[in-house]
Amino acid sequence: MLTGEGFQEVYNLSGGIKAWTGGKAEGPVELNLDMVRGDETPVEIVGLAYGMENSLGTFYRRVKDRTQDKELADLLENLAWIEDKHKQYLVNLYNDTESKQVSREEFEASETSRIMEGGFGIDDFLHKNERFLTSVPSLLDIAMMLETQALDLYIRFSRKTENGVTAEMLLRIADEEKAHLESLGRLRDERA
Amino acid sequence: MFDKMKRLFTPAKSMDADEARAFMRDRNEGTFTLLDVRQPGEYEKEHIPGALLVPLPKLSDSYEKMDKDRPVIVY
Lengths: 192, 75
Known about the structure:
- The complex is a heterodimer of chains A (about 190) and B (about 80).
- Chain A has about 190 residues and is an all-alpha fold.
- Chain A has helices at about 40-65, 70-95, 105-110, 120-130, 135-160, 165-190; one strand at about 10-15.
- Chain A is globular, with a radius of gyration of 18 Å.
- In chain A, about 35% of the residues are buried.
- Chain B has a 3-stranded parallel β-sheet with strand order 3-2-4, with no helix packed on it.
- The interface of A and B includes residues 2, 14, 17, 23 and 182 of A.
- Strand 1 of chain A pairs parallel with strand 4 (about 70-75) of chain B, so a sheet runs across the interface.
């Protein structure tokens, strides 16, 4: 149908979703879209993403504080460290795009969110998933699920966003999540 | 007229899952469209992250909102 309507390059995914071997997201199109109004400025959207990265790092460190398993603790610290790196990525992304510079300290100071990437609340998620946070393989599955939901949410945010610069930033954040997901997949394969 | 008829009967190419993953991995978001033409309930249960849901019965109403120059992967 699409090729007959002037679309230049159309591919059918053989086997559809059943054949898909990558991560899959869940939830309706509207899931967590109420976190954005649609008219956010770049600094607002980067601030929101910064808060979600920060909360996910907090989550990993809280789980780390509860475990006696050194391998698990090391992995949790590594995952939290990656979220710290993502926060710096966001600061750089913002400052590379906008003329009015905002420091990492300013983003940090304005951060009050308890919502992690993908739109999950820290306490609620911890409570519901405690049993999956006790081994390296299941923790990596949880980490990949969170990043998959995050990737999906950033792209859906971008579709709701009216400001072109803000929408473009959301797509670049989604690219970063996509790369993170690939590296988590490799790590999971190594540990399997 | 001939060109339009030719396009109408030009079958879309296929990609397997590995090819589609590599295609999406190697491109920035926003440079291609991942199109989910299933029903909302199927999308809600599971979908490929970033997919744009346009159920098949509504597809013909959505052509104008989509960028025809971008590659489209449909499932």
